[in-house]
Input
Amino acid sequence: MYKYIPTGNEMVSLPDLDAETAGLGSVTFLSMGHKGMIRIAGGEDLPLISPCIEMNGRQLPLCGLIWTREHDWIPTLQARAGSLAVTMTVLPPVGERGFALRLSLAARESCSVSWGLHGCWGGSWHCVNEDKPLDGVARCYKSGWNDSLIFDFRCGAPLFAFAPMMSQPCTATHEEHNGQICYSLTKNERFGAGETRQMIFYWGFGFEEVAAATSAKEMLRRGWEWEYAKTSAWLDARRAQLSTPKLTELYNLNLFFCIFFATGVTLDTEELVGITSRSTRYYVSAAYWDRDTLLWAFPAILEADKALAREILCYVFGRQRRNIGVHSRYIDGTVLEPGFELDELVAPIIALGSYVRDADDRSILAEPDTQNAIELILRRLDDMRHPSIPLYETFLQPTDDVIVYPYLTYDNVLVWKALSALSELAPERYGSLAAKAAEVKAAIYAHCVFAGADEAPYFAWSVDLNGVHNVYDEPPGSLQLLPYYGFCAPDDPVWVNTVSMIRSPDYEYSFAGRNIAEIGCAHAPYPWILSLCNSMLSGHDEQALKELESIEMDNGIACESVDADTGRCATGAAFATCAGFLCHSLRTIHRENENER
Output
């Protein structure tokens, strides 16, 4: 499996920096006008951007590549090219429409070298779950705006452009071949023995030529040191220290991946949005789910950056309000995949309650969008209530798969949580919801609890309210999380029996006894990383932390599921919202352990 070292900022994502070649396969950005993401990709034989080091007319391959991440996010490479030592750092400065790449060469002996970057613009793609090639005209030309090349894409009118600027004069060339644009940005130099030199390439992005070139020029004017200091300070302010170096590195890497790949700012309208992932390596990329953003990514973002958490809520209660509870949506709030999901309907209320409590900010409750969203959610909730029993139905389960029976225990626990939260957030207006929450809780115990052959009671996964139920669990919405949400105590015998059943080797989707002893489901029959998170939050943290010390996932980043023996990614690479829930689970356990000392 290829190993990638993703990085990015709020405007551009670099999802597939190849760990073996140092080639950058693509750059992505979000476009509100296109309801999703645009991917600018490399060619068949050459990536979009790659180091180019030639000696005596021969390309020198990079050898002995060693990658590290400065400040747990900024990729830095140490390698060799012939007798030259090569260092490359990719910096995505916060607040900029682009990124910078610094290339350094150190000569062991005197030599003449042609060095810089080269690459190929092989195609452009529209990405929302599925990737479709864009129909239009790709152009490359020299421009007075940056004294270098401009790459732009037009569909009648401009769609986007990108442009490089260099810290030193370079020779810029390009040619078109079979619809692909290949280019080079290089200079010829004579190195003395022991001499080190560097070049910095600033890549700007924008709507058209001027915006792209001046985005690069802004970074060039500011300079590498200024951009690096600003970005490293931003990262350091959000990093956390956990109990071991391994867990600390894992936490911070996944935190920044969540922040920069589960949220982003659109290039065309400059609006913050929440999405599943800004990497097309995740199989449902560049779309919005209430559950994914608010139950998984939001808790970690709230712990790290309360201002960003508030922006996310404003986006949800604004653009996304009209279709809250619908399976998935485009980033502009319109419906992508229809289908009602109860967990998604109440997720915004649960996130709102957490934000008000942790940020100590009640002002968001007075926002008209917030008030309108709450009323809309409550109306839709009433529509899904059983005529006589205070339980609420859903059509899709937390995996987005169709239900077996319409009343899910886990989903109704979230309803209880949301109603309880509202009654506490605004008792003067919603105080009566406390009684409704109590009715839901009583109904769950009355209608969702059954006894096994040994007469031990347990929570069913779903029920039809006519006595029929099934025994099942899903990592994206697990019965293991009932104490985490405050619904029952960890020693509640019904819950204890339930967890014992689904973690037992006898359960179909349990991987008890394997290296990664977590739980899967029909959607992906492998151990889920979300299950590992659930384990940390449900009293099985010792086992989960041991697994995390050795698990590979997607090159250290959360994925949907892993192989039960190797811990390598099995499904759902680059799962940005899951990365957030992994961070939240780690930090929760760390905090609890610290409090016990």
The chain has two domains: 7-236, 245-596. Residues 576-596 form the longest helix (21 residues). The chain has 14 helices and 30 strands. Residues 7-236 form a domain with the Beta-galactosidase; Chain A, domain 5 fold (CATH 2.70.98).
